[in-house]
Design brief:
Helix content is 49%, strand content 15%. The protein is built from 14 helices and 11 strands. A 4-stranded antiparallel beta sheet has the order 5-4-7-6. Strand 1 and strand 2 form a beta hairpin. The radius of gyration is 24 Å and the shape is globular. The two termini are 36 Å apart.
């Protein structure tokens, strides 16, 4: 009886392992499996953050597909390429026996918040995805540190003090409309004394920021915002409504609420990059080499892994030939498992 139970336990273990391998995969990187459900959940976390979508693609056309619940194939490939890169970094830390410290996590959180356009946008992600973003970037910080010569802290502080214009942070609100005539109407209403926040709530087609009176948060010159908006935010007078600015998303009527130099601890990594000490050249070269050597198996529905490029990457699937070109291809993720 005892031997039978041992064999049964062993059998159940084999069956459980087999069931795990039968789960649909999105990507397998040097034997490390990224299940399709993980990709689905990541895409849903992004889709569910309206503030983030408004910052990078208010039209949603570059992210969402044409069908309900679908995603643009190129955007899906972009996310998978990031998953691939981060998986290689994670595996490398294991090989080198490198550990992430609480300080690394704190630094990573600050960087992620800057990259996604502010604390409010970061908070709008699910907690599990916040933790994932933070952990991923912390691992990048650790590997970059291992690959990069030590930074002279005194020189870094001296550079920060003498180049503070490079580390300005702006906070702004905007009202987004479709036409120059509509922007002119907004200017006229504001000139008559109407409250900017009230007008934003009623008239801005950027509904996420509109519900907050047009507030888009605080950001740096390197943030993921359209260049026309960034240029205006870092050039027009603080506290005044500037001339309408046209971007690919429409016409922005912008009010800069503050603009000041961020504390050194908050921009330490950017300081090092500006000095060329933490530029990430070694990390970039390492990643290119790792991609060329990697054994990558991609679920064909998401495209192909192209090793012939200078930097190998995942290419989105091509739309089938059609006599009448239509919209860009999109993918419908299956239900999460």
């Amino acid at each position: 009886m005892k031997r039978f139970l041992v064999c049964l336990v062993a059998l159940l273990g084999v069956v459980a392992a087999a069931c795990g391998t039968l789960q649909p995969y999105a990507l397998i990187v040097n034997g490390s499996r990224i299940p399709q459900r993980d990709l689905d959940n990541e895409l849903k976390a992004i889709r569910g953050n309206g503030r983030y979508l408004d910052a990078i693609d208010p039209s949603r056309r570059q992210i969402l597909g044409s069908g309900n619940g679908t995603f643009n194939a190129n955007f899906t490939a972009f996310v998978l390429n990031q998953d691939l890169d981060y998986q290689l970094v994670h595996n490398e830390l294991g090989k080198r026996k490198l550990n992430v410290t609480p300080a690394d996590l704190d630094q990573a959180k600050n960087v992620v918040i800057q990259q996604v356009n502010g604390q409010d946008t970061y908070n709008a992600f699910p907690k599990w995805y916040q933790d994932k973003l933070q952990r991923r970037f912390a691992e990048v910080i650790v590997l970059n540190r291992a690959l990069t010569p030590p930074v002279d802290e005194g020189q870094a502080m001296a550079y920060y003090n003498s180049h503070q214009d490079q580390f300005q942070q702006a906070c702004a609100s905007h009202i987004l409309v479709d036409t120059p005539q509509a922007a002119g109407d907004i200017e006229a209403r504001l000139a008559k004394g109407e409250d900017f926040a009230s007008v934003a709530k009623s008239a801005s087609k950027d509904t996420a920021s509109g519900q907050k009176g047009g507030d888009v948060g605080c950001f740096f010159k390197t943030s993921q915002l359209v260049p026309e908006f960034l240029n205006a935010a870092f050039s027009q007078p603080v506290g005044q409504v500037g001339q309408p600015v046209q971007s690919q998303f429409g016409y922005h009527v912008i009010k800069v609420t503050s603009r000041q130099v961020a504390p050194y601890d908050q921009v330490k990594q950017q300081v090092q990059q500006a000095m060329g000490q933490g530029s990430g050249k070694q990390l970039t070269q390492w990643l290119t080499d790792a991609l060329k050597k990697a054994k990558v198996k991609l679920n064909p529905k998401f495209g192909t892994f192209n090793k012939d490029k200078t930097t190998p990457e995942i290419d989105a699937p091509q739309a089938p030939p059609s006599p009448t070109p239509t919209t860009a291809p999109s993918l419908t993720p299956p239900p999460s498992g």
